[in-house]
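Just scan my protein:

. . .
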Amino acid sequence: MEDRRIRVLIAKPGMDGHDRGAKVVARALRDAGMEVIYTGLRQTADMIVNAAIQEDVDAIGLSVLSGAHMHYFREVRQLLTEKKADDIIVFGGGIIPDQDLPTLEELGVGKVFTPGASTEDAAAYLREAVAKRWAKQ
């Protein structure tokens, strides 16, 4: 990998006001040596994608507990494509049913971390996925 730090944007889309998990992941990724931008609560997909492009991030992590995960992941992926930034990795976590995981994968969501997943696994996933992204640049 190049001698630069992985840049990750962590976002809470929609009206869900529970962000403890997002903050835990953000801290763990920082502790793993990554630069992390946390956008805060109640973000729209457009706000998330614009921030990701402005911050020149390698990955966007969405934290969704509200049940609206399909909508937000789909909208973020679509906006990234429209803005010619679809090489930005999208991953996520939260309360997401197993039966939705194949559809999210088809949408281009790289990995979903459900309750009980370790933050070490998230950091390892990002290191591997970003290394592949950088190799293509």
Q: What stands out?
A: The chain is about 45% helix and 20% strand. The longest helix spans residues 119-136. The two ends are 12 Å apart (CA to CA).
